[in-house]
Amino acid sequence: MRKEAIEKILRMKGKEKISVLTCYDYSFAMAIEGNADIILVGDSLGNVVLGYERTANVSMEDMLRHLRAVRRGAKNSLIVADMPFGSYENSKDAIQSAKKLIENGADAVKPEGMPGIVKELNKEGIEVMAHLGLLPQSAKKFSLVGKLQDDAERILREAKEMEKNGAFSIVLESIPAALASEITRKISIPTIGIGAGRECDGQVLVLYDMLGLYPNFKPKFARSYMNLKEDIRKAAADFSRDVKKGNFPDDKETLG
Protein backbone atom coordinates (compact mmCIF):
# COMPACT_ATOMS: atom_id res chain seq x y z
CA MET A 1 0.00 0.00 0.00
CA ARG A 2 2.83 2.40 0.90
CA LYS A 3 4.51 2.24 -2.52
CA GLU A 4 1.24 2.62 -4.41
CA ALA A 5 0.12 5.55 -2.25
CA ILE A 6 3.37 7.43 -2.77
CA GLU A 7 3.33 6.74 -6.50
CA LYS A 8 -0.17 8.22 -6.57
CA ILE A 9 1.11 11.40 -4.88
CA LEU A 10 3.93 11.67 -7.42
CA ARG A 11 1.43 11.37 -10.29
CA MET A 12 -0.66 14.20 -8.87
CA LYS A 13 2.05 16.82 -9.49
CA GLY A 14 0.79 19.39 -11.96
CA LYS A 15 -2.54 17.59 -12.34
CA GLU A 16 -4.36 17.62 -9.02
CA LYS A 17 -3.65 19.61 -5.86
CA ILE A 18 -2.53 17.57 -2.85
CA SER A 19 -4.22 18.11 0.52
CA VAL A 20 -2.30 17.43 3.73
CA LEU A 21 -3.72 17.68 7.25
CA THR A 22 -1.93 17.20 10.53
CA CYS A 23 -3.47 14.77 13.00
CA TYR A 24 -2.53 13.61 16.48
CA ASP A 25 -5.11 11.15 17.80
CA TYR A 26 -7.44 8.25 17.04
CA SER A 27 -10.79 10.05 16.94
CA PHE A 28 -9.69 12.87 14.66
CA ALA A 29 -7.89 10.35 12.43
CA MET A 30 -11.15 8.46 11.93
CA ALA A 31 -12.91 11.73 11.12
CA ILE A 32 -10.47 12.93 8.46
CA GLU A 33 -9.53 9.63 6.81
CA GLY A 34 -10.53 9.78 3.17
CA ASN A 35 -10.69 13.58 3.21
CA ALA A 36 -6.97 14.33 2.96
CA ASP A 37 -4.42 12.88 0.55
CA ILE A 38 -1.78 12.72 3.29
CA ILE A 39 -2.03 12.74 7.08
CA LEU A 40 0.96 14.32 8.78
CA VAL A 41 1.59 13.37 12.39
CA GLY A 42 3.39 16.62 13.03
CA ASP A 43 5.55 17.71 15.92
CA SER A 44 3.15 20.65 16.10
CA LEU A 45 1.41 18.31 18.54
CA GLY A 46 3.83 19.80 21.05
CA ASN A 47 2.15 23.20 20.70
CA VAL A 48 -1.50 22.32 20.14
CA VAL A 49 -1.88 19.12 22.18
CA LEU A 50 0.88 18.94 24.79
CA GLY A 51 1.21 22.64 25.60
CA TYR A 52 4.94 22.94 24.85
CA GLU A 53 6.31 26.30 23.74
CA ARG A 54 8.36 24.82 20.89
CA THR A 55 8.20 21.80 18.65
CA ALA A 56 11.78 21.07 19.70
CA ASN A 57 10.41 19.90 23.06
CA VAL A 58 8.61 16.95 21.45
CA SER A 59 10.28 13.62 22.22
CA MET A 60 10.42 10.43 20.21
CA GLU A 61 8.15 8.85 22.83
CA ASP A 62 5.59 11.62 22.23
CA MET A 63 5.73 11.05 18.48
CA LEU A 64 5.43 7.28 18.69
CA ARG A 65 2.45 7.41 21.06
CA HIS A 66 0.50 9.80 18.85
CA LEU A 67 1.59 8.09 15.64
CA ARG A 68 0.21 4.76 16.84
CA ALA A 69 -3.07 6.41 17.79
CA VAL A 70 -3.43 8.03 14.37
CA ARG A 71 -2.63 4.79 12.56
CA ARG A 72 -5.29 2.96 14.57
CA GLY A 73 -7.82 5.55 13.44
CA ALA A 74 -6.66 5.87 9.82
CA LYS A 75 -5.71 2.38 8.71
CA ASN A 76 -5.86 3.15 4.99
CA SER A 77 -4.25 6.60 4.87
CA LEU A 78 -0.79 7.64 3.72
CA ILE A 79 0.79 8.79 6.98
CA VAL A 80 3.96 10.87 7.26
CA ALA A 81 5.57 11.38 10.67
CA ASP A 82 7.79 14.26 11.69
CA MET A 83 11.20 13.25 12.98
CA PRO A 84 11.55 14.91 16.39
CA PHE A 85 14.30 17.39 17.14
CA GLY A 86 17.61 15.71 17.97
CA SER A 87 16.66 12.36 16.46
CA TYR A 88 18.51 12.76 13.14
CA GLU A 89 21.73 14.64 13.87
CA ASN A 90 23.81 11.93 12.18
CA SER A 91 23.12 9.10 9.76
CA LYS A 92 23.09 6.34 12.38
CA ASP A 93 20.60 8.15 14.62
CA ALA A 94 18.47 9.20 11.66
CA ILE A 95 18.14 5.67 10.30
CA GLN A 96 17.38 4.24 13.74
CA SER A 97 14.79 6.95 14.45
CA ALA A 98 13.14 6.65 11.05
CA LYS A 99 12.84 2.88 11.39
CA LYS A 100 11.11 3.34 14.77
CA LEU A 101 8.58 5.66 13.16
CA ILE A 102 7.96 3.26 10.28
CA GLU A 103 7.56 0.33 12.69
CA ASN A 104 4.95 2.31 14.63
CA GLY A 105 2.73 3.16 11.69
CA ALA A 106 4.36 5.78 9.46
CA ASP A 107 4.65 5.29 5.71
CA ALA A 108 7.25 8.04 5.42
CA VAL A 109 9.18 10.44 7.64
CA LYS A 110 9.87 14.17 7.52
CA PRO A 111 13.11 15.67 8.86
CA GLU A 112 13.74 19.42 8.60
CA GLY A 113 16.50 20.38 6.17
CA MET A 114 19.49 17.99 6.13
CA PRO A 115 19.75 16.88 2.46
CA GLY A 116 22.52 14.44 3.39
CA ILE A 117 20.27 12.71 5.91
CA VAL A 118 17.53 12.44 3.28
CA LYS A 119 20.02 10.66 1.03
CA GLU A 120 21.01 8.18 3.75
CA LEU A 121 17.39 7.42 4.59
CA ASN A 122 16.62 6.86 0.93
CA LYS A 123 19.48 4.35 0.72
CA GLU A 124 17.72 2.39 3.48
CA GLY A 125 14.50 2.30 1.48
CA ILE A 126 12.78 4.81 3.79
CA GLU A 127 10.42 7.24 2.08
CA VAL A 128 11.09 10.88 2.94
CA MET A 129 9.08 14.08 2.71
CA ALA A 130 11.67 16.86 2.83
CA HIS A 131 11.17 20.26 4.51
CA LEU A 132 12.77 23.56 3.48
CA GLY A 133 12.33 27.25 4.22
CA LEU A 134 11.40 28.02 7.80
CA LEU A 135 12.52 25.13 10.00
CA PRO A 136 10.49 25.44 13.23
CA GLN A 137 12.60 23.03 15.29
CA SER A 138 15.67 25.26 15.03
CA ALA A 139 14.27 28.67 14.03
CA LYS A 140 15.13 31.59 16.33
CA LYS A 141 12.27 33.67 14.94
CA PHE A 142 9.21 32.79 12.89
CA SER A 143 9.20 34.98 9.80
CA LEU A 144 9.48 34.80 6.03
CA VAL A 145 12.60 32.99 4.81
CA GLY A 146 14.16 33.47 1.39
CA LYS A 147 13.58 37.17 0.80
CA LEU A 148 17.28 37.79 0.16
CA GLN A 149 18.69 36.53 -3.13
CA ASP A 150 21.37 34.40 -1.46
CA ASP A 151 18.79 32.68 0.73
CA ALA A 152 16.44 32.13 -2.20
CA GLU A 153 19.22 30.59 -4.28
CA ARG A 154 20.21 28.33 -1.39
CA ILE A 155 16.64 27.08 -0.90
CA LEU A 156 16.26 26.39 -4.63
CA ARG A 157 19.59 24.58 -4.66
CA GLU A 158 18.60 22.49 -1.64
CA ALA A 159 15.24 21.64 -3.21
CA LYS A 160 17.02 20.23 -6.24
CA GLU A 161 19.36 18.33 -3.93
CA MET A 162 16.41 16.89 -2.00
CA GLU A 163 14.93 15.67 -5.27
CA LYS A 164 18.25 14.12 -6.29
CA ASN A 165 18.62 12.47 -2.88
CA GLY A 166 15.32 10.64 -3.18
CA ALA A 167 12.68 12.70 -1.37
CA PHE A 168 9.19 12.02 -2.75
CA SER A 169 7.93 15.53 -1.89
CA ILE A 170 9.03 18.75 -0.19
CA VAL A 171 7.27 20.95 2.33
CA LEU A 172 8.04 24.62 1.65
CA GLU A 173 7.33 26.72 4.73
CA SER A 174 7.12 30.50 4.98
CA ILE A 175 8.93 31.41 1.79
CA PRO A 176 7.96 33.99 -0.86
CA ALA A 177 5.24 32.78 -3.20
CA ALA A 178 7.38 33.56 -6.25
CA LEU A 179 10.21 31.40 -4.92
CA ALA A 180 7.84 28.54 -4.13
CA SER A 181 6.41 28.80 -7.64
CA GLU A 182 9.90 28.68 -9.16
CA ILE A 183 10.86 25.62 -7.11
CA THR A 184 7.61 23.90 -8.06
CA ARG A 185 8.38 24.44 -11.75
CA LYS A 186 12.00 23.34 -11.53
CA ILE A 187 11.68 20.04 -9.67
CA SER A 188 9.77 16.90 -10.61
CA ILE A 189 8.50 15.98 -7.13
CA PRO A 190 5.48 17.62 -5.48
CA THR A 191 5.84 20.72 -3.33
CA ILE A 192 3.57 21.13 -0.32
CA GLY A 193 3.14 24.71 0.82
CA ILE A 194 2.52 26.18 4.23
CA GLY A 195 2.73 29.93 3.97
CA ALA A 196 4.28 29.58 0.51
CA GLY A 197 1.54 30.78 -1.82
CA ARG A 198 -0.96 28.98 -4.02
CA GLU A 199 1.35 27.72 -6.77
CA CYS A 200 2.68 24.76 -4.78
CA ASP A 201 1.46 21.31 -5.77
CA GLY A 202 -0.37 21.00 -2.47
CA GLN A 203 -1.07 22.63 0.87
CA VAL A 204 -0.72 21.49 4.48
CA LEU A 205 -2.80 22.86 7.34
CA VAL A 206 -2.59 22.21 11.06
CA LEU A 207 -5.81 20.44 12.06
CA TYR A 208 -6.40 22.63 15.10
CA ASP A 209 -6.06 25.77 12.96
CA MET A 210 -8.59 24.37 10.50
CA LEU A 211 -11.01 23.70 13.34
CA GLY A 212 -10.47 27.01 15.15
CA LEU A 213 -9.47 25.05 18.22
CA TYR A 214 -6.03 26.48 19.08
CA PRO A 215 -6.31 30.03 20.46
CA ASN A 216 -2.68 30.79 21.31
CA PHE A 217 -1.26 31.50 17.86
CA LYS A 218 -2.71 31.65 14.37
CA PRO A 219 -0.33 32.49 11.52
CA LYS A 220 -1.54 34.68 8.67
CA PHE A 221 -1.49 31.78 6.23
CA ALA A 222 -3.75 29.51 8.33
CA ARG A 223 -7.46 29.32 7.56
CA SER A 224 -10.14 28.30 10.06
CA TYR A 225 -13.15 26.49 8.62
CA MET A 226 -15.07 26.54 11.90
CA ASN A 227 -14.85 27.87 15.46
CA LEU A 228 -14.76 24.62 17.40
CA LYS A 229 -13.29 26.26 20.48
CA GLU A 230 -16.47 28.28 21.01
CA ASP A 231 -18.67 25.27 20.22
CA ILE A 232 -16.85 23.30 22.92
CA ARG A 233 -17.16 26.16 25.40
CA LYS A 234 -20.92 26.31 24.76
CA ALA A 235 -21.36 22.54 25.02
CA ALA A 236 -19.44 22.44 28.31
CA ALA A 237 -21.52 25.31 29.71
CA ASP A 238 -24.77 23.65 28.57
CA PHE A 239 -23.75 20.35 30.19
CA SER A 240 -22.82 22.02 33.46
CA ARG A 241 -26.12 23.92 33.51
CA ASP A 242 -28.14 20.74 32.88
CA VAL A 243 -26.32 18.92 35.68
CA LYS A 244 -26.89 21.73 38.17
CA LYS A 245 -30.59 21.95 37.26
CA GLY A 246 -31.06 18.19 37.50
CA ASN A 247 -31.83 17.88 33.79
CA PHE A 248 -29.00 15.44 33.09
CA PRO A 249 -29.41 12.53 32.94
CA ASP A 250 -33.07 12.33 31.97
CA ASP A 251 -35.23 9.20 31.97
CA LYS A 252 -33.97 8.06 28.55
CA GLU A 253 -30.36 8.37 29.71
CA THR A 254 -30.86 6.41 32.93
CA LEU A 255 -30.06 2.70 33.10
CA GLY A 256 -32.28 0.19 34.86
Could you outline the blueprint of secondary structure elements for this entry?
Layout: H1 2-12, E1 18-22, H2 26-32, E2 38-41, H3 45-48, H4 60-73, E3 79-82, H5 91-103, E4 108-110, H6 115-123, E5 129-133, H7 149-164, E6 169-173, H8 177-186, E7 191-194, E8 202-205, H9 207-211, H10 228-244
Parallel strand pairs: 1-2, 1-8, 2-3, 3-4, 5-6, 6-7, 7-8
Helix pairs in contact: 2-4, 5-6, 7-8
Structural features, described:
The protein has 256 residues and is α/β, with parallel strands linked by helices. The chain has two domains: 2-225, Phosphoenolpyruvate-binding domains (TIM Barrel, Alpha-Beta Barrel); 228-256, no CATH class. The protein is 41% helix and 13% strand. The protein has helices spanning 2-12, 26-32, 45-48, 60-73, 91-103, 115-123, 149-164, 177-186, 207-211, 228-244; strands spanning 18-22, 38-41, 79-82, 108-110, 129-133, 169-173, 191-194, 202-205. The chain has an eight-stranded parallel sheet with strand order 4-3-2-1-8-7-6-5. Helix 7 (149-164) links the parallel strand 5 (129-133) and strand 6. The chain starts with a helix and ends in a 12-residue tail after the last helix.
